[in-house]
Amino acid sequence: MSNRDQYMPGPAAGAEVRKDGKKWTLILVRELRHPPEKVWKALTDPASLREWAPFDADRSLASVGPVKLSTVGTPTPQISASQVTRAQKPNLLEYRWGENDMRWQLEPLGDGTRLTLWHNIDSGFISMGAAGWHICLDVFDRLVAGDPIGRIVGGEAMKFGWPRLNTEYAKQFDI
């Protein structure tokens, strides 16, 4: 697991916020070196989600319908009865996670994929969300590359640069 010990996220980048009253949307864009089909599998497959996502899923997210998402890295697991509302392999995935709408768009980019995440977050938590997703997407990228370092969420993210990212995103978003 030495790769994990050496992991430290780069500077806050690739994120913007759309503000609409108290409901804000965090938009994160990543350019990945992997084709959309590989990225799609890591976004939807429960075993893959356990390697990088801030939640576990009780089934694949690749089809529309109810799903239970359980947060990890929290003192008590929060289980949300959620709903996959759109699943268009390998381009678009939309689901509700608790009170939040999540939308993942995958666009072919050369041999890779431009991945865009839209996540509705309460304005008080937006820089925290950006910092958390930044780390999750770094871990995601390594997983899809065949070099998994294991999920980094919750309190453990504190050891991996989360406080610095939270501060950097707060500055970028002017909050």
Largest sheet strand order: 1-2-8-7-6-5-4-3
Number of helices: 5
CATH-defined architecture = 2-Layer Sandwich
Range of strand content: 35-45%
Give the helix/strand class.
Answer: alpha+beta
Percent helix: 25-40%
Domains (count):
1
Description:
It is a single chain. The chain is α+β, with helices and mostly antiparallel strands and 175 residues long. The chain has a single domain, classed as START domain (Alpha-D-Glucose-1,6-Bisphosphate, Chain A, domain 4). It contains 5 helices and 8 strands; from the N terminus they run αββααββββββαα. It has an 8-stranded antiparallel β-sheet. α2 packs across α3. The longest helix is centred in the last third of the chain and has 19 residues. The chain starts with a helix and ends with a helix. The model has no long low-confidence stretch (mean pLDDT 94).
